[in-house]
Amino acid sequence: MNLVSLSQVFAASTNANKVDDITGHWAESTLKQWQEKGLITGYEDGSIQPNHKITRAEFAVLINKSFGFKDTATIDFKDVKHSDWFYTDIAKATSAGYIKGYPNQTFKPNQSLSREEMAVIVTSLLQLKGSVTPTVFTDTTAGHEWSKGPIGAIVEAGLMVGYGQKFNPLTSATRAEAVSVLDRALKFSKDSETVVYNQAGNYGPETGVTTITGSVYIDAPGIVLSNTIITGDLLIGEGVGKGDVSLKNVTVRGTTTITGGGKNSIHVIDSTLITVIVNKKDGSIRIITEGSGSVQQITLQSGALLEEGTGTGSGFDNVDLSGLIPANSQVTLAGTFETVDVYAAAIQVNLNSGSIQELQVAPGASNTGINISSGASLTTLILNAVARVTGQGSIGTAVINVSGSTITQTPNHVTRADNISVTIGSPAPNGGNPNSVTEIVYGFEGTITDVNHQPVADLTIQFRKGLGNTTGAISGTVVTDINGHYFASLSPGIYTGQLVKAGYITTYVIAASLTDYKNTLQDATAIRIPAADEIRIVLTWDLLPLDEDSHLVGPAANNKFFHTWYADNEYTKNNVLYADLDHDDTNSYGPETTTIRKRVDGTYTFYIVNFSGNGQAGLDTLSASGAKVEVYNGDNAVPVKTYQVPAGAGNQLYWHVFNMSVDGNNLTFEDKNELTNTQPLANVDFDLDSQLPDSYAFSVENHPGATDVVKLNSLSPGDIVSVYTNETGPPIQSEPVQEGSDTTEITGLDFGANERIIYVTLTSPGLDESRRLTVPVISEANYTELSTTIANAFADKEVPGTLSVGDVVYLQSNPLQVFPSDLVIDIKSLEYYSPTSVSDTVYLYKDYSNIRYLEYNGTNEPIKYKVTLELRRGFATTNKEFILTVPTVFSALQQSVNAAHILLNNGSFDAALQEAMDNANEVLNNPNSTVQEYLTALIAIHSALDAVAGE
Predict the structure, then answer these.
(1) Which of 862, 856, 865 is nearest to 883 (CA)?
(2) Cβ within 8 Å of residue 79, ≥6 positions away
(3) Concatenated DSSP letters for 242-258?
(4) Which CATH architecture has domain 787-887?
(5) Tens of pLDDT along 661-683?
(6) 415-451 burial, b for 16+ CB within 10 Å, e for fewer?
(7) Record: fold of 442-528
(8) What is the pTM of this model?
(9) CATH number for the domain whose boundaries are 695-777
């Protein structure tokens, strides 16, 4: 069947005998909602096929339809024709700006959408900021650098999740996943409506506190925002210019981003900002805290002045000077700071007054200037990169971990790592103070590792001056230590280092010696000579383009072909590794290595792709890259074949290097060595294995005795699931997926009482068996704890009457109860339960990762919802159902008055809270009070309670 845009995104069904393939599916509820809204309507047979992969074009159609994009842009992608069914939708996507094509002017509309691509597209769609915090996933390095920030952002927003400790960035997204993520994105965008202030003036109530559920955008000077709680983010935009903005008694629960303001600009008065990011292009911005104002974490991406004024607040706690701050920027501090971490290179940090408890210069932040003015103090200084410390202020302890720094003043205590030199105090004549080391260090250092990221010791590096100089006079020679580390003390300039060690291929490192400080991180990868039966292909190139990619197409073990490249870097069959891209270099020079581990006679094709594109000026071409490919046959240190990229003015994106015939140990080459804009061998019959669903489709139960269960969903009829107890033996049990089902359950297993490993495979019709997925099984005791103790922590409960609309409802009976760190709580469903007499008002809402309080209950009886949770530890799961009750406003108001009474009697006097409580009591004591009066009193006392809680 031709997809045809999921037949215009799951095209209209005309078959009377409709196939229902979503009942019982994990995304059933969302898919049915989208069907009801007309966003998806099924294929010709009525099926949705939720577990099938979705293409880039299909995803664009879904976005345009669900978000209502209608404007189009002119497009000229080579692989998108006017006659294509998806042409208009790709034009809409281009106009909306949420998706881009590839550097070679293609869109790849029929290519399966990967999970990392979905994260990037949805992040762009919602204009989320890339997360500066590394994600908890262990496999993001398997993806691309460009996807890490969006993955962090989309996970933090609760729009996508990982699978245990993995995100699986290169795994193809399914149609069900796409609909589910977009459904959350729609709700996220609606829940995150932004209040805009773009005219000078005073905003917010004069007394009391108002809550804005969403974000606030301030885009004009002369704005004063008072007495406001912002549940989302605050953006102080460039429209502020060099003017002022004042925040008075404002609490921002999200991130505050400041891109506008001047030298007397942002006043944080009696306000609480949790996380602040500053990026003022010219660096001329002053941020001052006053009164009880506090900023818990501030990250500067530009220069700035941070000042603590008078008052009792904590001011600025932790300050990060990020690597995005431009060189030569000025950061000035005045006040009492807990920590200041410097990640930016070549900036100037000035402590004009006050103190810093700890200032740390991170590795890579070389050439930092630090000035401590008279009267200011620094308790602890930690230098992990070269810095120049000046001024007349005091330093308590200096910890020096690299050579080459200078400190004008003398710290009270100095700790230096072994063999580290530093200049302390003014150099004395005639050799100076013997307690000071005045040696000035030039040169550079780095670490040499192999393709497995292990250090290579006792490797000789011969440095020659000049970029790409491999034959001139040797300027210096160093040998790596046990950690693969080296240091070369050479005069300023660019050097080419030749890596030499028995058992390794000769490769090179490019390093720079700077004029006024030691350069670090001049690292390289050493490539081993292949084993006797292996073939290794090594690619190297110059500075630009940054990323050239190696592609190898070769004969598979079943008369088909394999393809190794950055997105699929291993070809394995029956647990045997045949070929791999064992080192993918993405940042100039190489080396990038592809290795044939097990030879299969036949013809192999090797080609290079300019992944970075030709650059804005069109000059970063393959032909100008100086690229070289060497082929090594067996354990021979001399290449059997060498190719230089054809020089010239061409801008082609593919370099077809060679075809190679393998006949046992004999290699025969067909020299292609041609540049082209056509991908070589793009349409051959590739060997495809069955693809296991993601780990969230698994459920493993470990009970006492032979009652253990492996359950797997998101499958298709005819799929066969097999369970193994080891990596090589036969399966202990296999079960097919029956017609009309997407699930199989293997029962009667016995994994034993302790933790262990099992292996699971999938065999789909017409495809080979998948690789064996390693599945950790928790112990019987831990599974019993999961299904009893942990599950019992979620019981019938009432939403607290003190909870405000918009807040998250805590689901466990005891919000302070500590769960295992690997426990994942997934809200499978939230269903209205009782009473039947209530209208369609929605009181509780599931926003994927939480349940939120959406509406106060103004009826005469409590509202009940049934919650179904999936509790997961790794692959082990259990479900728990319980009832969540929404109290009436009459009950909620009484509970809130009781809470206010306790706070006021315990010494937390607050005039606004007292007034709100008094008004609430009047409503409670008046038998004629209306529901609206109860609601008004409840909202007022909740606002007052929130304000007291935030102090």
Answers:
(1) 865
(2) 106, 107, 108, 109
(3) T--EEEEEEEEEEEEEE
(4) Sandwich (2.60)
(5) 999 889 999 999 999 888 887 55
(6) ebeeebbbbbbeeeeeeeeeebbbeebbbbbbbbbbb
(7) Immunoglobulin-like (2.60.40)
(8) 0.42
(9) 2.60.40.10
